[in-house]
Fold each of these.
Amino acid sequence: MSHKVTLIPGDGIGPEVSGAARRAVDATGVKIDWETAELNPEIIAKTGQSLPQHVIESLERTGIGLKAPVTTPVAGGYTSVNVALRKRLDLYANVRPVRSIPGLVTRFSDVKIDMVIFRENTEDLYSGLEHEVIPDVVTSLKVITRAASVRIAETAFRYAISNGRKKVAAIHKANIMKLADGLFLRCCREIAQRHPEIDYRELIVDNASMQLVIRPEQFDILLLPNLYGDIVSDLAAGLVGGLGVVPGANLGENHAVFEAVHGSAPDIAGKGIANPTAMMLSAAMMLVHLREQAAADLLQAAVEKIYSAKLHLTPDVGGSAGTQEFTDAVIAAMC
Ligand code: NAI
């Protein structure tokens, strides 16, 4: 049986890493009917829509996307297509497994890091509701709702139970944002009470950041509102080798879009040195979602084999290979 998947190559390093991930998925032997949907600054300028209709139509058809990063202009320009896509398809859960890769030397190689980040994906300060009250005075609305907070908390606890995880830590700043983060926290507590078998605790985001750096092995599942989830994801990626190696999924009731934590990396775009690991591992998460567990395991094992051998690695993780060489090695490791 073949699966229909929307492939969004994005821009910057996106086409390089998504091309590599597509080759690796095809090499597992799984039959994927790829439907390519271009989404990049040129298309956005041409169509005049920050979320062009053809992308939505394709994802509505397939229900599944493998998405590379898309650049968002800083301090002006159009609104983030990534945020728009997550809201439009109600992809409310951003799930990011952060794990030590055996063989990959990092500052934290001597500890085993194995945590999963559950970031609320549709609201908080990403509501995009900003307003210049008077010249030089701007407000930005942080929106927290019971519905979205309960939904992400339930998703995290459900995942913990079905994956044999033991601990959930809710991360907040409710000492300062007593109403907004207070509501988020109340919702997390309600869900936690229904699952007494899971060890639940709460940490203020500044302390959580320090704890992540000094004792990352203590964390299992992290449950966060959107902004803290975004920042803590990059921090956590830094513990296991950087943005080049951490995958992710955006999950909703009817759609799932798999994408790496990293962005379009304009500083290395077009140089052929981007690390496609994060995209490949996102693709492995997609294969699990498609119930192609054997293919997912094959891809995951092939990537790990390359790291264990410490050969064919890209410069961000201490090697000197290019995207192509790494990808060829992963594919060869599957045979
Ligand atoms: P970034 O993640 O693109 O890059 C940060 C640093 O990590 C850079 O030094 C980059 O070279 C390195 N890096 C990232 N991915 C890598 C990879 N696969 N291999 C090797 N090195 C890698 O973050 P930055 O520079 O803050 O953002 C660039 C653009 O990406 C912005 O327009 C931002 O809005 C967008 N972005 C898009 C996302 C998405 O489409 N989901 C997510 C995050 C950022």
Amino acid sequence: MDVKIKKGRIEKEAAEAIVLSHFEGEESLLEETAAVDRALGGQIRGLIASGEFTGKLNQILMLHLRGGIPARRILLVGLGKKKEVGTEKIRQAMGSAGRSIREAGIKSFSTPLHGRGQNKISPSESAQSIVEGCLLGLYQFTAYRTEKRDEIKEVSQITLVDRTGGKIAEVAGGSRSGQILAEAVNFVRDLCNHPSNVVTPSRLAEEARTLAREFGLTCRVIEKNEAESLGMGAFLSVARGSLEPPKFIILEYRGGKKRDAPIVIVGKSVTFDSGGISIKPAEKMEQMKTDMSGGATVLGTMKALAQFRLPISVVGILPATENMPSGTAVKPGDVVRAMSGKTIEVINTDAEGRMILADALAYAARYKPSAIVDLATLTGACVVALGSHATGVMGTNPKLIERLKAAGEHCGERVWELPLWDVYHEQIKSDVADMKNVGGRGGGAITAAAFLRQFVGDTPWAHLDIAGTSWNDEARPYAPKGATGVGVRLLIQWLTEMSRGRA
Ligand code: BES
Ligand code: ZN
Ligand code: ZN
């Protein structure tokens, strides 16, 4: 996508289309909308007076013009109530606007800085939200469409028109941030939408190596035999049933001072979760190609981090494997030894995410990091508890959890805490080993976290269960159906605040 910035007046733009906005229930028009309305002899005012356009959030109305202003069309978009407008509403409105423009077969459009000046929205924040919303909303996964490819519609250029011109550098900075974030999220969406016969553990390792080459990161891939010597018995127990070689992937970004403790982010990377011997029902099993969402998000975050050059050191870890049934697969009742030395009774082979994370978290703790955050499509129970509108968070450090919640609120990827009280640990006690890998009927998202907790030691740690938020069954204003790429914007927001040292 080509994003341009210029100083100018939107009513003077000779564009295929311009996007104008309006607040719901307001009589007065926004400055740019009013300027165009005057040139059109009150046409927009008329539409609002008649009730045809109300300005409700994400409402869209396309107008075709025959003169009056140089632009050929106007796309009116609702920003919702004036006092409620913020960056999230702008992202949504612009996601909706971008898609309507694409549907109309339009390839480029110009837009003023919506929301600027309202509720302290800066020119930079407005620009970032517009670019983020448009680029995220315009995402489409077309890799496997071989027929009628020429019918695929695409918007290729967006122009931000800044009427004052006084803040052009700020606007450009905001726009660049929006583009880096949206491209990283869309990279994650691609990895998750590709099927598991393409995105194998080996492919994830290749993607990590490519990022390392492109952005100057350090990449190390631990192969199966080395994982064996390291004693990663929990990770390897999951890989045993598959013919795909497992890969334990490590990516390092060193933006901080040499002696600074790094932050480690860990992502569950099960490239296909059949359930193993405790096999899943056929219905919706195909969706388990996205069980590597956590790992993909770690890759996307490392990519964005390197582009932002944040002054902070971050290590990304992806334990990558398939979970398959076979003659060599781990079986219910088997006992395995994790890298930490603890023994685990495998009750259900479908609770594989916590097995691979057990070794990844123990490995992460070896860095003596200031914090570990893991992301995982870990439990159906979390989907039952929170649905698809909030990521579950649990952990050992209230401050870390608060920061993640605040970051989520800020970027529109909401996070909600579930209680990780000590009593939940009772549910994962085993008769034969140090613990078992399932915790019985109640509180499935929490007992999974209680299991993970056994492997982080004293390091401040938070676990994000993204099982409900990583996939959309229905399109949202700036997230089409399918993989959402959740977590990248959340982690970058959090890491940015950490790097400023003010969080
Ligand atoms: N990958 C699944 C969790 C999941 C479910 C992700 C739905 C996305 C959507 C995980 O490995 C799993 O199978 N968990 C089991 C755990 C159970 C056996 C204790 C579950 O949630 O049913
Ligand atoms: Zn599973
Ligand atoms: Zn899984």
Amino acid sequence: MAVRIKNYINGKWINSVSGKTLERRNPANTSEVVTIFPRSDKRDVDTAVKAARTAFEKWSRTPAPKRGHYLFKAAEILEQRKNELGKIVTKEMGKILPEGLGDVQEAIDTCYYFAGEGRRLQGETVPSELANKDAKTVREPIGVFGLITPWNFPIAIPSWKIAPALVCGNTVVFKPSQFTPLCATKFVEIFDEVGLPSGVLNLVHGTGSEIGDEILKHKEVDAISFTGSTATGARIKELCAATGKEAACEMGGKNAIIVMDDANLDLALDGAIWGGFGTSGQRCTAASRLILHEKIFEKFLTKFVSRAKKLKLGNGLQKTTQMGPVVNEEQYIRVLNHIEIGKKERAKLLTGGKPAKTKEKGYFIEPTIFIGKPGMHIEQEEIFGPVVTVLKAKNLEHAIQIANDTKYGLVSSIYTQDVNKSARAEKELKTGLVYINAPTIGAEIHLPFGGIKASGSGHPEAGGRGGAIDTYSSVKVIYRDYSGKLQRAQIDVKYD
Ligand code: NAP
């Protein structure tokens, strides 16, 4: 039976003002309605933003270790509910259960990590160039954050944003994807349970075009953190620039795995299958391009195609399923259209290329492999489905050149056993993350995650130096002069 959910505003679960609703179906079985959720509008956004604004005064003054403690308690509950939540991820979004559980584990790790940040939130203390003067930085919250998230990591990505935003002392208006509203609700329910003060975290369901825009334009929202497509991100950056808001945007990718002739080919094969077809190719980090050294091209490709053909498609809750459906009808049509373009531009189709025949009535597409050429549409555009374009490289330089020749810059990977080649690749690949002897998937939450070029806006997510703490706090510089006289920097300093 479908679950009816509500918005969460100022500590209360409430319907949208209009009372209108939308429904979300299981992508692996489209006759099953999973969730009925509010179709919110401007009025709901306005109430949520006002609640967040009011709550900010007190929350921003709450000691950071105490803010972190709420995250710690949330992590504990997430851990207890991992199985239940993992199944909801699979039902609502379609990824197979081990991946659904991985999604939840990422949120557990993230909440524990940022709970600890409550006791760090470091600034720096440096010497002053003048005597009897201190110089230091402290971190301050930014204000009300609008968080807008996609469907492909429906618990992990909200956790990437909510956990650091809260520990840094911000309050939040959270708009999840309309395709995973139940996952978002289950995550927010936990913060309600741990007693987070009213108004600190607000959840508003609805569509990007109706309420996303309202969040972006609202005068009381200070900053936006968005993860989603490059097209939506570009619009968000424009609107935020016009309204003077900070915008942290993590966007699409066209990631490549390079396999050199000296690579451990079995290892590379496992990586290429997981990178290309894990989550049905619906990861920003999916390896949708496979660049093979010409000496191993035929041999590797034969094995790659044979493995892809054997992948078992179906409902992700079944143990034998290796690949689930794509998320919705729109995505299904979009992926099939990209495949048609590939055929028209005469890329060589080796397997797949059409809807898959399955017992379930869902959005299943066969794992698809093309041999392509640099510059082709299917080699340049993010498809976000189970489609891999294979390219041939003459040598390392050529492979790196092909990998870099895209507007995106999220992730890249190289398989080689030659330490010199791996060293050159890690330096020359133009992406935010580089993997060596591992696929493009597998980021850990205690290092920054973010793309360059059209994949990111330079405000990474997750932990580590240069990660989310920088995105969700501002740095205040404090000079304290206790000399009792006017001291002029650069002028009263004498270097003999
Ligand atoms: P999307 O269509 O851009 O949507 C992302 C979010 O933005 C959704 O909540 C969406 O609302 C909302 N939105 C849409 N139009 C909006 C508007 N005009 N104003 C404000 N918000 C708006 O992306 P998606 O299909 O959900 O996700 C897939 C994309 O995300 C891929 O490109 C993938 O590479 C990228 N991604 C990137 C990362 C990363 O870290 N780099 C991670 C995961 C995914 P709706 O509810 O209406 O959809």
Amino acid sequence: MHHHTRIGIIGAGPAGLTLALLLQRSGIPCVILENRSRDYVENRVRAGLLEQNTVDLLRDLGAADRLNVEGLEHHGVILSFNGQRIRVPFDELTGGRGITIYGQQEVVKDLIATALYRGIDILFEADATLIEGIESEQPTIHFTQNGLVHTLSCDFVAGCDGFHGLSRKTMPPDSYREFRHEYPFSWLGILANVAPSSDELIYAYHERGFALHSLRSPSVSRLYIQVDNEDKIEDWSDERIWEELSIRLGAEGWALERGPIFEKSITPMRSFMIDNMQYGRLFLAGDAAHIVPPTGGKGLNLAVADIRWLAEALIHFFETGQTDLLEQYSSNCLRRIWRAQDFSNFMTYLFHKQAEHGSFENLLQKAKFDYIGISKAQATTIAENYVGLKDV
Ligand code: RFL
Ligand code: PHB
């Protein structure tokens, strides 16, 4: 069957869904193709840290009723080095900006519900298999749904299909340069039914490796530990995970509460970049174009930041016929993406174990940590990057 719309969006993650809502608000028709089921995307456990800009956009879109009630606002973060802790107060250092903890799958549920309520077409279990004609004015997306082959012709294609998606692979190989950095460790993440042991997030270096204490609600904790790239989930019993978390996050007079673990997975750490996110009528956004290690909490926030630029450029084009903002799309996005790459890389190397404890490299790492406590300038650098720069 053949379909037509103005903007064909591939992917119903945070990027694709926010784009659809921004376009619909300006009266621009779009269709979202998502190869997974609604249930799958609504329950995929991932990020949890929303920057102020992201929260502001979700509010502006009218998709934040639940976020306003259930989101947990944080005004500081705790950094730890082998048990020694420093608190970085965002409020004081960034003029009142902060972060909100709210699970990505909750964001996705809210965005899907809002989009469907507003009549946006989201085709679930619709697998995009080919994008044709990106150099023409009417590109076509081929997709399959329920065993049938369909085509969707449109004015523009928004590739919001994540790191493994089809869109980036459709860009001519000589239209961009690619940068990859693999880290020699992974994160094992858990969700547990236990009240968080800390009101604020704790990022910890320990001589046994990194650990992060985060949360999802007053009764659910989210925790991560550094593991080897070769480690399998079967190597990590619940008992071993709690033991390791307690040691790595430990500080005098503080104890980690334990509870039943109901989610456990291992994620590799990588940085990935391309230096051009558009070709003809195809525009990439979010993980389709860049991956940052999760230590800075930036991935979802970058996806939403790309979409602000893309929506503005597309709306401007349909209102005026001018292509200037579309032409500037990549360069506008790349400033923030490189900033986030640098911050995520900095946080990753500051808190992960890479060298023998007590070695020269490790003592430099300690010196960098100590400097946060000594210098308000350094603490401000961390705070403003962590809550997210308002304009980049
Ligand atoms: P997504 O969410 O991957 O969505 C892409 C969608 O495209 C669909 N798709 C296709 N659909 C149709 N046809 C095809 N051929 C398709 N190919 C793919 C996929 O099914 C999917 O639904 O990308 P998007 O929208 O760019 O969003 C990016 C974020 O999901 C990602 O950056 C974050 O989860 C990263 N991240 C974090 N980001 C933060 O901002 N703060 C955090 O605290 C944070 N913590 C994390 C994270 C990611 C993690 N993992 C598991 C990678 C913690 C972890 C552990
Ligand atoms: C999370 O709560 O899942 C989370 C928080 C901060 C990060 C990464 C993940 O840096």
